[in-house]
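Bumping my old thread because nobody answered last time. Still need a sequence for this structure:
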């Protein structure tokens, strides 16, 4: 009777836990659906009123003028260029740092480097913005002889620094999870440690590394506070040495006083940003899956 009772209680526990897992999974899916529906409802009507062509491809942003214009193409392109630049700068540094911590550095040094990386992840965005405003912006202005260093280049540098902790942490975890047998087999076949790292270990950990890059892209394209402090916040077409405005900074800087159609358009910008993040995630995941299938 005791054995039967124990088996029955285990069966009930298994059923309960499965229901809990199912509810958690459904909660995540429902949250995404709810956000998607809300963004469409809040941002869709304004796009219809302004006109999708004028909204997405217009180059003039004058929401408070007598004849208001709501062209967000400069913000879209600035967000794309800024995110691409941050990834181009941050991914190699982050990946090589993860390789150093996982495969090269002695344990004593890793104990120093890892907390430093974790500390970077815990620093608030506004602190990055302050550091960028006090150090990076004046430095860029002096180096390139600009009237103001609040430019696209400053924003790219700040974003690259901000995404480093995410890329380093996720990539290091992925590299550490690679089986030791692969490393030993490669070395036994005559490969050098560096060849083993770049031709065996990194390809084996590619899934985790791509995940880190996706998370980095999400943070870069969604960052607001730090960028608004270093980019100049002017709706110009993207230029490394000019002030620009990202989609996120456009929303944050005007939402406090916007009203009517202006406010609705800001929600539409949020919808565009939301779609961008979804498209980037889907494209990167499909590229990775296709590459994996080809192998």
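Sorry it took so long. Here it is:
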């Amino acid at each position: 009777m005791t054995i039967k009772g124990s088996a029955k209680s285990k069966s009930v526990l298994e059923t309960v836990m499965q229901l809990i897992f199912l509810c958690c999974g459904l909660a995540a899916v429902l949250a995404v659906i709810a956000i998607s529906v809300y963004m469409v409802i809040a941002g869709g009507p304004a796009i219809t009123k302004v006109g999708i062509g004028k909204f997405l491809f217009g180059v003039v942003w004058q929401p408070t003028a007598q004849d208001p214009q709501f062209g967000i193409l400069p913000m879209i392109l600035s967000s794309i260029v800024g995110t691409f630049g941050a990834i181009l700068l941050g991914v190699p540094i982050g990946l090589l740092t993860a390789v150093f911590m996982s495969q090269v550095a002695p344990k004593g040094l890793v104990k120093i480097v890892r907390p430093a990386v974790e500390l970077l992840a815990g620093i608030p965005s506004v602190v990055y913005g302050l550091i960028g405003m006090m150090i990076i912006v004046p430095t860029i202005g002096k180096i390139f002889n600009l009237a103001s260093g609040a430019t696209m280049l400053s924003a790219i540098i700040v974003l690259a620094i901000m995404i480093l902790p995410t890329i380093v942490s996720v990539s290091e975890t992925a590299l550490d999870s690679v089986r030791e047998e692969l490393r030993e087999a490669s070395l036994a076949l005559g490969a050098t440690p560096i060849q083993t790292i770049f031709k065996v270990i990194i390809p084996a950990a590619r899934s985790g590394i791509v995940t880190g890059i996706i998370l980095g892209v999400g943070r870069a394209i969604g960052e607001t506070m730090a960028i608004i402090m270093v980019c100049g916040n002017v709706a110009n077409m993207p230029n490394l040495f000019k002030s620009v405005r990202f989609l996120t900074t456009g929303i944050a800087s005007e939402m406090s006083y916007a009203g009517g159609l202006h406010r609705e358009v800001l929600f539409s910008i949020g919808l565009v940003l939301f779609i961008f993040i979804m498209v980037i995630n889907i494209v990167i995941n499909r590229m990775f899956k296709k590459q994996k299938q080809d192998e």
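The two ends are 55 Å apart (CA to CA). Let me know if any region looks off to you.
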